[in-house]
Amino acid sequence: MPTTRITLDSTFIDQVKHKIKPHWGELGWVTYKRTYARWLPEKNRTETWDETVKRVIEGNINLDPRLQDLPSQDVIDELTNEAQQLFRLVYSLSATPSGRNLWISGTDYQKRNGDSLNNCWFIAIRPQAYGDSHIVPTYIDKRKEAVSMPFSFLFDQLMKGGGVGFSVVDDNINQIPQVDHQVDLSVVIDKNSKSYDASLKVGAIDKAEWEKNNSDLDNVIYYRIPDTREGWVLANARLIDLHFNDTNPDQKTKLVLDISDIRPYGAKIHGFGGTASGPMPLVEMFFDINNVINERVGQKLTAVDATDICNLIGKTVVAGNVRRSAELALASSNNQDFIKMKQDKEKLYHHRWASNNSVAINSKFNNYGPIADGIMHNGEPGIVNLDLSRNYGRIADGYQAGIDDDVEGTNPCGEISLANGEPCNLFEVFPYIAEQQGWDLKEAFSLAVRYTKRVTFSHYDWEVSRNIIQKNRRIGVSMSGIQDWLLNDLGHRVVTGFKDATDKETGASIKKPIYDPQGIKMVDGLYHAVIAADKAYSEELGVNPSIKHTTVKPSGTVAKLAGVSEGMHFHYAGYLIQRIRFQASDPLLPALRKCGYHTEPDLYTKNTICVEIPLRAAHADSKNFASAGTVSIAEQFATQAFLQTYWSDNAVSCTVTFQANESNQIAPLLHQYRHTIKSTSLLPYYGGSLKQAPKEPINKKTYEDRVAMITGDVKEVFENQNKDQKGLELVDQSDCASGACPIK
What we know:
Blueprint: H1 10-19, H2 28-35, E1 39-40, E2 45-46, H3 49-61, H4 73-91, E3 95-97, H5 99-104, H6 108-112, E4 120-124, E5 128-129, E6 145-146, H7 149-159, E7 163-167, H8 170-173, E8 184-189, H9 196-201, E9 205-206, H10 207-213, E10 220-224, H11 229-241, E11 254-258, H12 280-294, H13 303-318, E12 327-332, H14 336-339, H15 345-350, E13 356-361, H16 369-378, E14 382-385, H17 386-391, E15 407-410, E16 417-419, E17 426-429, H18 431-436, H19 441-455, H20 463-472, E18 476-479, H21 482-490, E19 495-502, E20 509-515, H22 517-541, H23 557-562, E21 575-583, H24 588-594, E22 598-601, E23 608-616, H25 633-646, E24 655-658, H26 666-672, E25 679-684, E26 695-697, H27 700-708, H28 714-721
Parallel strand pairs: 4-7, 7-12, 8-9, 8-11, 10-11, 12-13, 13-14, 17-18, 24-25
Antiparallel strand pairs: 1-2, 3-17, 5-6, 14-25, 15-16, 19-20, 21-23, 21-26, 22-23
Helix pairs in contact: 1-4, 3-4, 7-11, 7-13, 11-12, 12-13, 19-22, 24-28
């Protein structure tokens, strides 16, 4: 039966464009054009903002399951009106879906890969069954547990542009059986392949030569890897599973992987976009992973081994195309080998950079000293309190035993607690901008709820994901520009001071934060509007209400569109220079230079140009303004606790910045907020101390002098210069403040 389709007509869009001016930040249009504007081959140009928003909203509204049958006219009218409201909301930049949705929603790729609408995922590293998934190795039953499965899930999702959190806690790693076999791996390539010479340099061998020397194939598994994402995943699965008796009943120990069919470096990747890396990074990965497992024959893999395998996969995914690999490894808090694994500098630079590392704790944990020491030296580990995540929504709503009992970890940025196989599902409202654009905030957040709810009706490739999504319908409605909004509406920051108090369990003296009552009322009212909207829409659709609803994502790229502070974070400085890195051939560079922006060669990467853009934070001159360089570590912890208590029933992503003289406060503050904060991470504040730092604080006069040098509108100049320019690719930007999550 054909599906009824909701569309936004051109007359409506023209009316909106006439009435509403998008609230572009100083970096907004440039960031949009280079990150989310897709190439339109039929028009020989990239999208305009209204075309992007139309594509995104139509891609989402048509996920409503009622459209699969013959919907009533009332349903069609309801969804058409909602699509128009969503268009106004997003076009004005009062809110946006996640960066993934801005890039993927409404495309053919979305229709083929429902997973692609979700930013990030979580998987437990333990033997699991593939089930009814789009990737199932032919050599095992789909219901049989395999060591390879979670690695295959991670590899697949990373290649589809998602970040992946993974758990290597003791309970998971102990389920992996001992390594039974050493595998003799050969990688072969045909002389006719364009990648022949480059592949030989990284360990591949000539296919004809191998065949001449290996006539006895009784103990050999030969796999010619198809030039597909699935082919890469299945080859790696075969390599891993041969090491274990359960998935290698014939006990064959020689594996030959034929890479002859894999497209060469620079070839176009259809669907997701970008260019191919060629087979060379894959060859290196195969040998590296095989070495990790071979070294454990007769023993069990460790948490460090499993993390290394995930990191080696992540390293391969980022090679040579537009994807970024975002990983978060979560291990048991007593695993000192894991906590110290990045101290091995050779392995750090080779592959261990590919994940942010955290430890799982509960509210009884009190050994924060080693964690604080690690944070002071290299910014890790972060902490994830699984006890709080499983038994609490908002802290204000009190203990609710097992309310989210399946939670095992988190996404790479820490704002969503997740069960095995579960994804993030994000949308963010900019309340400061939405109020300026005349929105009732409760209406804006209600639209966000319905948008994210529809994403749960996508077709998901993995059975483990389908099952948990249908059960939980978890959504993550976020707000960004929080500091701008609170300072504007309250006239001051939400933490108004601290009072002396005593820790009820330890008797230790603490400083308890004092919150503005109106600030509490503001976020609490919006939370209840979100709950009401989910309840109403769930009843319409005949599905369970979402298990959790609200979050604070770190934002980053999306926040730049509207020019607001990122998530809950304070602006890096009141006035600053933001450096964006461009490929030297990028067609935006001439427009930026013509408009007066300072450009210079990047000190760290060849063929890359740094562009300096002066920025001013909202309320930069207010006496109550604070930046990441001036706000205390105590107030940042207190602000995260405020949002976890009164707004977010999932978690709050926060990277607390600290000055050198505040490092002795890290352990005490982590302990003080053990019953409040579900996850957090910390980094030292660098200011402008690094050469060509991404963000460099400046004073007001320097800002004004830089602005005075800028003439013309980059958008207009670019459009006049480039009537037919193809694909623009972003360098060194991310969808998250920490740089952890992928753009697209």
